[in-house]
Design goal:
Helix content: 25-40%
Pfam families: Alk_phosphatase
CATH class of the largest domain: Alpha Beta
Shape: globular
Cofactor: Zn(2+); Mg(2+)
Order of helices and strands: HHEHHHEHHHEHEHEHEHHEEE
CATH topology of the largest domain: Alkaline Phosphatase, subunit A
CATH superfamily of the largest domain: Alkaline Phosphatase, subunit A
Bound molecules: 2-acetamido-2-deoxy-beta-D-glucopyranose
Radius of gyration: 24 Å
Protein name: Alkaline phosphatase
Strand order of the largest sheet: 4-5-3-2-6-1-7
Number of helices: 13
Organism: Cynoglossus semilaevis (Tongue sole)
Membrane topology: Lipid-anchor; GPI-anchor
Number of strands: 9
Length: 442
């Protein structure tokens, strides 16, 4: 690496400066050894739980790879005025850890549609398709028929359990949609998003499948605009033309849903006041759509209008857990991924921290002996965590070191996309560079 000398020079500085900021108790070997003993002892004391799970809560951090977890852990501690690196997230306390290979049938790096089909339906498939096997082709309605695969949401419902989806994106987005829909394209949110040929060939949009395919007890997220006829004013943003109803077929799926639930206690809400008024003890069905599209990022959320993922998770569990046969709940932290796509580490990490608090709330509301709780991700992102920030330095900060160009760099960095380093306003031109060469610098 070209900049090795630069690093070595500055590493010397780093050691000199940072030695003063060490925590006194950490200088004592017993501090580390007793921690190790306690960790080992609690692992040895743990009784293997062989019960059949009555309830399953699946927490899916979209795009929440290992680097995101590390950075979010540090941020979570730093938001509590700790140094952060030593913070224990709720996810960190789970007794079993595993890793999965996330490739899709056609791509080395998958998208959220292919991965959701893998972990919800148990079948690897192609990129961009949801709830169909790999014989179906992206965007080709004709290849969809006969290739549908069902999800754990349906299996749970068929077993007499209550089922729910909670997300921070629109409820028609790839992750939640795969639990209830079959679609050759993840983008067919409403009929207006489908080509005429797909409609002629008999395919239906994801929103219409949301209310028909499976009798879902709790639906919480965003996505109102895909549910109402074209031009319908949004209740929260009546003057904003861009968020008006999208549907060309003139259907209002919200009122259709309400009619389908006649005779049951079913609430449709779109704001915090109405959400808070929903009594989980007396509610059979809840559909809560807080935004026309995806929800706002947690740090941009207006708490007077929209509840947090902690609150939506709690409401869902309280409604679902009335069923003596148990429940299945999918909770998606869906905007970790979206923030990463935009190169916004600040947003992505705050989303991940909120997601971890939702997991903590779920553990408080359920019992371990009858509930399987899983926290996982579908794929990673190009975010990297660079050397050598000091202990306790802001995870969103800059290196105390300079590279050989005498410039600092950010602790977190993206390998591509808008967060990638630009040279003179554009990415380096590597068209004539053979990156497979042993001498290649990439
Ligand atoms: C952290 O410190 C800041 C500044 O002193 C203070 O405003 C904030 O309340 C503290 N937060 C916590 C969680 O202690
Ligand atoms: C919340 O929704 C209800 C039902 O549509 C409406 O009457 C109420 O005004 C809304 N609240 C706010 C603060 O917009
Ligand atoms: C950036 O632009 C300046 C001025 O046009 C030029 O001298 C320099 O070589 C450029 N750097 C790179 C890496 O292209
Ligand atoms: C790139 O380098 C590799 C390894 O030396 C070599 O096998 C390959 O043929 C090169 N590719 C091109 C396009 O020159």
């Amino acid at each position: 690496m070209e900049s090795t000398r630069g690093f070595i020079l500055c590493l010397f500085l780093l050691v000199t400066i940072s030695s003063s900021s060490a925590k006194v108790e950490e200088e004592n070997p017993e501090f580390w050894r007793s921690q190790a003993r306690e960790t080992l002892q609690s692992a040895l004391n743990r009784k293997i739980n062989t019960n059949v799970a009555k309830n399953v809560v699946l927490f899916l951090g979209d795009g929440m790879g290992i680097t995101t977890l590390t950075a979010a852990r540090i941020l979570k501690g730093q938001l509590q005025n700790q140094t952060g690196e030593e913070t224990v997230m709720t996810m960190d306390t789970f007794p079993n850890v595993g890793l999965a290979k996330t490739y899709s049938v056609d791509f080395q790096i998958p998208d959220s549609a292919a991965t959701a089909t893998a972990y919800l339906c148990g079948v690897k498939t192609n990129i961009n398709v949801i709830g169909v096997n790999a014989a179906a082709r992206n965007g080709a309605c004709k290849t969809q028929k006969g290739n549908e695969v069902t999800s754990i949401l349906k299996w749970a419902k068929d077993a007499g359990k209550s089922v729910g989806i909670v997300t921070t994106t629109r409820v028609q987005h790839a992750t939640p949609a795969t639990s209830y829909a079959h679609s050759a394209s993840r983008k067919w949110y409403s009929d207006a998003d489908m080509p005429d040929s797909a409609k002629l060939d008999g395919c239906t949009d994801i929103s219409s499948q949301l209310i028909r395919n499976i009798d879902i007890d709790v639906i919480i997220g965003g996505g109102r605009k895909y549910m109402t006829p074209r031009g319908t004013k949004d209740p929260e943003y009546p003057r904003d033309f861009s968020v008006r109803g999208k549907r060309k077929d003139g259907r209002n799926l919200i009122t259709e849903w309400q009619k389908l639930k006649t005779g049951k206690v079913a609430h449709y809400v779109w704001n915090r006041t109405e959400f808070d008024a929903v009594n989980p003890e007396t509610t059979d069905y809840l559909m809560a759509l807080f935004e026309p599209g995806d929800l706002r990022f947690e740090v941009d959320r207006d708490p007077s209008m929209d509840p947090s993922i902690v609150e939506t998770t709690e409401k869902a569990i309280r409604i679902l857990q009335k069923n003596p046969k148990g429940f299945f709940l999918l909770v998606e932290g869906g905007r970790i991924d979206q923030a990463h796509h935009d190169g916004r580490a600040f947003m992505a990490l705050h989303e991940a921290v909120a997601f971890d608090y939702a997991i903590a709330r779920a553990l408080e509301l359920t019992k371990e002996h009858e509930t399987l709780t899983i926290a996982t991700a579908d794929h990673s992102h190009t975010i990297t965590h660079n050397g050598y920030p000091f202990r306790g330095q802001s995870i969103l900060g800059k290196s105390p070191l300079w590279a050989l160009d005498f410039r600092p760099y950010t602790t977190l960095m993206y390998g591509n996309g808008p967060g990638h380093k630009l040279i003179n306003g554009s990415r380096p031109d590597i068209r004539d560079v053979n990156t497979s060469k042993i001498t290649a610098v990439i």
